[in-house]
Every structure is written in C-alpha cells, then in structure tokens.
Amino acid sequence: MKIKALVAVRSGSIRVENKNLRPFCNSNLIKVKLEQLKRIPELDGIVLNSNDETMLAIGKEMGVETVKRDPYYASNSVVMSDVYVNMAENIDTDIIVYANVTNPILQDETLSAAINFYKEHCGEYDSVNSAHPIKEFLWLDGKPINYDPLNQPRSQDLPNIMCINFAFSILPKELMISGRNVVGRKPYLYPIDCFEATDIDNMLDFEIAEFLYKEYVMQGKSLK
Fold it and tell me: Mind listing the pLDDT tens digit for each residue in 181-215?
C-alpha cells in the first residue's frame, strides 16, 4: 500500500495576497509543510501540485515530486470537486494524504498517528479526516439549530458537532476520483484540538498562526 502526501498550492489567492509564498517565520507556508511531511516516516513520498513555477521550484529544491497543474484547475471559477479529481489522476500512489499548507500548527505525531489509524481501520472507514468540535450557539434562517433558547445549556454542554478542518484527509486515490472529494462515503472524523486545527483563511488568521508557530511550534512548547 503506497502512501504519498499531496500538497496542493496555487497562485491567485484572494483573501490573503500571495499567501503560500508570503514570509512566515523566516520561511513560507509551502516550505513549512514540506519540511514537516519529510519528517513523517509513514509516507512513501510527497507530491507538490501547483500551477505556479515559483512554488514548483520550491518543491524541486526540497526534493519532492512536482506536478504542473493546468491553469483551469487553479482558477477561481473551477468547482473544487473537479480539482480533486484532476489532482488524484495525476499522482502515482494507492493512498493519498491530502495536507493543506494553511494548517501549520498540526503536529508531526498527530499526522503519523492518523496515518497509522487509517492503516489499521481502512476496512471499517474509507477515509480519515481531521475535525474539531464546534461549541458555539449556531443559528440558521433565524432559528437556533443546536440548542433550545428556553433551556440554554452551558457552551461546554452543547452537542458535539464536528467541523472538518482539512488539516489532513487520508483516503484511497480511486475514492478521491470516484467520490470527487477528500471526504469518503464512510469517513472517520479524527479529532484534533482547536490549537492544531488553526487554519489560515484571512490576514488575521495568518498573523495568529504565525504567532502560534513562532511561540509554540518553534519553541517546542504545547498548549495541550
């Protein structure tokens, strides 16, 4: 069972300009993620998929496989499901560990443990996807969806609604193609805490992630 990490990056980020190449703790998000993946012994290889020559050059310099993505599959108009299919069709592996560069706080041991969990339970679940609990008072269309306002619970007693955060997704290549997604039909939602789930979606997120990475990851400290 060949297992490779797939790192997908593109130019043209909208909410954080040049996000993947922007200076991040004397490095950048691409290098940080590739350096981490090279430390994971359960992986048989790493593939960087991008439309951008500068990003591909970083992958080549760091000794990982690179795949040049067709510009259409890096546009802001393409459906993400089509992107998943295209990327899966262009990687030589049995199992894909889809790892986003925008989750730089994810710990090595967490990713290794998740891969081993998949190997042990792949007959029971068809994908393993990182997720964290949402303990917020949620409303939709003017109505609460996870609590009764007349009997409001404490926030810690709200239902255990899980949010898939895409720090990692582990699944067979063929399932990623047929299912057009990185979440399988029978997924296991692998719990990680909000610290490791830190995701970069806007400039505030970027600055928070950089602070946490500098203060905790680089110092070898933990919030756990």
Answer: 999 999 999 999 999 999 999 999 999 999 999 99
Residue 25 CA neighbour count, 13 Å, CB half: 21
Identify any residues that bridge with 59 across adjacent strands, giving them in sequence order: none
Q: Say which DSSP state 213 is in.
A: I
Contacts of 79 (CB under 8 A, 6+ apart): none
Q: Report, in angstroms and rounded to the nearest whole number, the Rg of the chain calculated over CA atoms.
A: 18
Residues facing residue 128 across a β-bridge: 170, 188
For residue 223, being part of any structural domain is answered with: no
Is residue 16 in some structural domain?
yes
Per-residue pLDDT tens digits for 117-174 = 999 999 999 999 999 999 999 999 999 999 999 999 999 999 999 999 999 999 999 9
**Do residues 47 and 6 lie in contact, with contact meaning Cβ atoms separated by under 8 Å?**
yes
Q: What is the CATH number of the domain that holds 108?
A: 3.90.550.10
Tokens 């979440």 locate to 183
* Interatomic CA distance for residues 223 and 196, integer angstroms: 9
Q: Is residue 222 part of a domain?
A: no
What is the residue range of 123's domain? 3-217
First to last CA, the chain: 33
For 71-115, write each residue's pLDDT tens digit. 999 998 999 999 999 999 999 999 999 999 999 999 999 999 999
Separation between Cα atoms, residue 56 and residue 72, nearest integer Å: 17
pTM: 0.94
Residue 180 lies in a domain: yes
Q: CA-CA distances (angstroms) from residue 165 to 72, 99, 130, 132, 133?
A: 25, 11, 6, 7, 10
How many domains are there within the chain? 1
